[in-house]
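Sanity check. The docking grid for zinc ion depends on where the pocket ends up, so I'm generating a full predicted complex first rather than guessing from homology. Inputs follow.
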Amino acid sequence: MVKIAPSILSADFSRLGEEIKAAEKAGADWIHVDVMDGHFVPNITIGPPVVKSIKKSAAIPLDVHLMIEDPDQYIDAFVKAGSDIISVHAEASTHLHRSINYIKGSGAKAGVSLNPSTPLNILDFILPEVDLVILMSVNPGFGGQEFIPQTLNKLRMLKEIIKRNKLKVEIEIDGGVNTDNAPDVVKAGADILVMGNAFYGSKDYAGVVKAVRKKCG
Ligand code: DX5
Ligand code: ZN
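Predicted complex below; grid placement will be based on this.
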């Protein structure tokens, strides 16, 4: 069954704890936390202190997506804050192998995220070591953008590589996923769907989860 990871980027930041509890109650599997530094992406969001405080409200895993330059510098702080999964961008990490192994050595699951235009072959020598690949289906920086359809081909190709090599790597699709396109995304091989605007922009969180489960299985 596909996992649903609401992105708190689209939640009401004045009530983050409640918004997380509401997502859990609606049946969400993970909470997706978008960390932006104003350098790697043209937006600034939250850092370790906020992750630490929302951890108190979250019973389900915190899936922390670092859209920041020089992520190695902050891994310890995000682990300590209670991140369960930490993903770094391949484009932002000079020593990706070291970053991934450092995250795993710290006790969190490790992911690597790719921008829409970044080719899959950047994963050639790291894929067996990661727990998660995030394929961005928008250019990172903002919620509420439109899904880039070319992501589906990339997703099918990645799924095929993972299957062929019998790897236990999950694929998360991040950006512009909604109840209409979710079936195509799942059919193409997604294991986890990030939903920001489509989830927190809705008045009926449980209805969104229900619709995705009904349409995607
Ligand atoms: C984009 C973020 C996404 C974003 C998804 O930079 O990484 O996680 O919050 O939001 P939607 O689902 O609204 O595109
Ligand atoms: Zn994200």
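Relevant for the grid: Residues 177 and 195 are 6 Å apart (CA to CA).
Also worth noting: The two ends are 6 Å apart (CA to CA).
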